[in-house]
Design brief:
By secondary structure, the protein is mostly helical. The chain is built from 12 helices and no strands. Among the domains are: 110 residues, Cytochrome Bc1 Complex, Chain D, domain 2 (Orthogonal Bundle); 98 residues, Cytochrome c-like domain (Cytochrome Bc1 Complex, Chain D, domain 2, Orthogonal Bundle). 30% of the residues are buried. The C terminus is likely disordered.
Length: 316
């Protein structure tokens, strides 16, 4: 009996030693216990930073990217869209609408009666170059609730190539002029401005939520505490707006609400026009201002964005 017990115990001990040895051997063979990050990851996740806390890379304005874009490359990228979209004249709608002559067309309308989502039908304005760039970056961020299942194109160059290709398919709109890069400050000069920031209309819509207590923004919206802001981007300062009673301080300003002027106003309304009725203190964050301007421009605006430097210090 003791001999049998000893035999069994010996085999169990041998099995444990063998398993331990194989585990150690496999760990060394497959580098399972390696703590350093591999030089090449197993697969890439689109949009993920290469390292935690990596700095965001500045994106050139769409006008600049279009000047360097390649429609042939855009056509190749568009191949992944053909499962849902046709793009030739007379093509049928599918899972998504036919995209012939879509650039310059109204958002969420027409397209031979395609059934757009309510979230996209709620957008006003047209598919201009900047709006398409925002849409292609992340459709769901642009219109939460959209039927579009495509995650978006993380490469700014890919988006420009696709937009140029779409423009060649029935739209043929003139391309916006490239935006000149800001000149470097002279040696010893104070850096009072930063490079232009490209806004995100979808992000701007979220920031604009705090403005809705005073402003409407859809076409035909009524004036409230503040004027309706549909098509304000590019419009004359303190004129029109359905007869809204602007302050004398704002009426004294001439010109139009271009990108730079909107940026100054959003930085600090009271500083821009002392005596304005606008009680809002302003947006300290330059990126938020750029996002709001992009959103305002998407609502019937007339601007080509990407040229306005943000003030170095926001008004207090």
């Amino acid at each position: 009996m003791d001999d049998r017990f000893n035999t069994i115990a010996g085999w169990v001990l041998f099995g444990g030693i063998l398993a331990l040895g194989l585990n150690s051997l496999s760990g060394h063979y497959f580098l399972a216990d390696k703590h350093e990050r591999p030089a090449t990851m197993g697969y890439a996740i689109a949009g993920a930073d290469d390292a935690a806390g990596g700095a965001a890379v500045a994106v050139e304005p769409i006008a600049n990217r279009l000047a360097k874009a390649d429609a042939a490359k855009g056509e190749a990228i568009f191949a992944k869209c053909k499962a849902c979209h046709t793009v030739d004249q007379g093509g049928a709608n599918g899972i998504g609408p036919n995209l012939w002559a879509v650039i310059g067309d109204a958002i969420g309308q027409g397209r031979a009666g395609f059934a757009f989502s309510d979230s996209l039908k709620g957008k006003s304005g047209k598919w201009d170059f900047a709006t398409l760039d925002t849409w292609l970056t992340n459709p769901k961020a642009f219109a939460e609730g959209t039927k579009m299942s495509f995650a978006g194109l993380t490469s700014p160059e890919d988006r420009a190539n696709v937009i140029l290709y779409l423009n060649s398919k029935g739209s043929n709109l003139p391309l916006p002029a490239p935006v000149a890069a800001a000149a470097a400050p002279a040696a010893g000069a104070p850096t009072t401005a930063v490079a232009a920031i490209v806004g995100d209309a979808a992000a701007g819509e979220k920031v604009f939520a705090k403005c809705k207590s005073c402003h409407t923004i859809d076409q035909g919206g009524a004036n409230g505490i503040g004027p309706n802001l549909y098509a304000i981007a590019g419009d004359a300062i303190a004129e029109g707006r359905g007869g809204y009673a602007f302050s004398d301080a704002l009426k004294a300003h001439k010109g139009n609400w271009d990108e730079a002027t909107l940026n100054q106003w959003l930085s600090g309304p009271a500083k821009f026009a002392a005596g304005t009725k606008m009680s809002f203190a302003g947006l300290d964050d330059a990126k938020q201002r750029a996002d709001v301007i992009a959103y305002l421009n998407s609502k019937g605006g007339k601007l080509t964005l990407g040229a306005a430097p943000a003030p170095a210090a926001a008004a207090k």
